[in-house]
């Protein structure tokens, strides 16, 4: 064992490659066991002559300085601040699978134990480089005091990949000005989210947060994430009571004016207490900033029909807790017009629109619960509404709530545009669920352990990225640094200067394909990016300017009698894990041409899901566009390179459910997908691959239990491999 430890200490430098050596854009970041496949994607990959894999020794890292090895990222330049890569205990040569200029795959040797693996590559000039597999990745953190921020004593939630390992304890290092604060993980939810407690004695300032999942030793920390330790946000506590201002709460007197007087008195902030009672209100209420309206058991606000746009409104920094709201003919129920920081806790809201359906239909997208901005806290509530459930551009928490559709318009649905949102342990039943159709409002979502019992309306989607568009599609005119010139013959759609700030520029074909960057500013013909590309595009490169929706994690949710869970264009580094689905349309990962935008679906993971009872039947009188069997469906259509690097692993499908690959008519529509260690039973074919010619490339089908497969005879055999 001593000899193995010494081998593990051998260090290899990670050189900064020149342009004529292999360049890595992306590697597999999902949890990978022995016998499973790692994708290596980049440029010049055909120059790699040898690949070895070894397992890192599990050396204790308690109270040690964090050291990390950078991972290749499709949306960033190489991280020059990382450390050296350490060899594993036994570096074993492995076969190179489907090697080509853009990619190669390798299989972790079965003889290794579960852990963190070193992948070491040697190119044909003898240069050595590498990366780690199963090393933790921290994408974002959040507390009640902010996104990527916390206060002393806060609970801090950490989201990423490879955070939980059986038999190993996670830990965190917070580093500021050379001082290290080491913390143990307080509790783990799953591989994608854990919790720590920030020490009460910590000083405010900027810290670098590193994470270790307990495996891999001293160099297997995550790359650092900047976390701001801030002063705790304190709301005013001055108390006011609506009865002091004339409210009776007797179910007959109109208490509207008393409530308005109490709120006006609390205009500088405080708590407006509403004792138990039945309060009749005939007009909308406006809650000032810094004010919490707090009821108690037995507090009911009974709104008569009102003419205001919403029953309760505010700009920001307001809250409502511990009461019930009953309303008739209301369209808007609770809305904010400012910059977030809205608290809704322990509410029961019941809306009955009666015969006001036409009225609701006329303004459906301005109905129901409409919150926007950072710092929302929606907890332990019951919402029974005919209107929208809309959370746009939000960060914060939605936890342990019940969302129920109570009739009304078929147009209303749940809209979620996250910017750092935890949405967990909720019951969701409405007309559909749309996620982030705008340019830059959809990133950093952890949605877990939610239940959708049925959805029979509209397209029945349980989750869809449907929407968005594109601004430009065509070849590159030139590239210098972080500037990209567009050609005049490119296709544009509503293309105006600076409209696409925050959106993405994707190289989907030609030199440098598989990389994307975020747009900082642009004119009609010049784009300024947040970083240069690792491999600059040239006149052979085809780009798409469209939406970015990244780091959306859907974990351990359930759906029954519904439509699809679907990444429907423009999903990057997203995850569907542990989903349990019955009698639904299944899971879709689709890169496609949508609303004038060619929207890539790159590097997504569909893992450890269970699809059972797989017959999907449209409901009577509903205009349902799909019938058939439940599927996991990987789709690329609209142009080459719109679906790259999809991983379908360890899923269990039964009762006619099956896996499908559905490319369009373009060459290389689906590239480098891995379908591995899935079990399918009860279907005519466990896997179906459609298309003609070379519409798929480097599809790897490995170690599955399928029974039979249906592979279209017109497909070129060199586009896929079965092992």
Descriptive account of the structure:
With 723 residues, the protein is mainly β. Helices cover 3% and strands 47% of the residues. The protein has 3 helices and 74 strands. The strands form 11 sheets. It has a 27-stranded parallel beta sheet that branches. Strands 41, 51, 55, 56, 62, 66, 70 and 73 form an 8-stranded mixed beta sheet that branches. It is globular and about 85 Å long. The two termini are 35 Å apart.
Topology diagram in text:
Layout: H1 2-8, E1 11-12, E2 23-27, E3 37-43, E4 48-55, E5 85-86, E6 92-93, E7 103-107, E8 117-123, E9 128-133, E10 137-143, E11 146-147, E12 149-151, E13 155-161, E14 171-176, E15 179-184, E16 187-190, E17 193-197, E18 205-212, E19 225-230, E20 239-241, E21 250-254, H2 256-265, E22 270-273, E23 277-281, E24 285-286, E25 291-294, E26 299-303, E27 310-314, E28 318-328, E29 332-336, E30 342-352, H3 357-362, E31 368-372, E32 376-379, E33 382-385, E34 389-399, E35 402-405, E36 414-424, E37 427-429, E38 433-435, E39 443-448, E40 451-452, E41 463-464, E42 470-480, E43 483-486, E44 491-492, E45 504-509, E46 516-522, E47 526-529, E48 542-546, E49 550-555, E50 558-560, E51 564-568, E52 571-572, E53 575-577, E54 580-582, E55 586-594, E56 597-599, E57 601-602, E58 605-607, E59 610-612, E60 615-616, E61 628-629, E62 631-636, E63 643-644, E64 647-649, E65 652-653, E66 658-663, E67 670-671, E68 674-676, E69 679-680, E70 687-689, E71 696-697, E72 699-702, E73 709-711, E74 720-722
Parallel strand pairs: 12-19, 20-22, 21-23, 22-25, 23-26, 24-27, 25-28, 26-28, 27-29, 28-30, 29-31, 30-32, 30-33, 31-34, 32-34, 33-35, 34-36, 35-37, 36-38, 36-39, 39-49, 40-50, 41-51, 49-53, 50-54, 51-55, 52-57, 53-58, 54-59, 55-62, 57-63, 58-64, 59-65, 62-66, 63-67, 64-68, 65-69, 66-70, 67-71, 68-72, ...
Antiparallel strand pairs: 1-5, 2-3, 3-7, 4-6, 4-8, 8-9, 10-11, 10-13, 13-17, 14-15, 14-18, 16-17, 18-19, 42-43, 42-44, 42-48, 43-47, 45-46, 45-48, 46-47, 55-56, 60-61
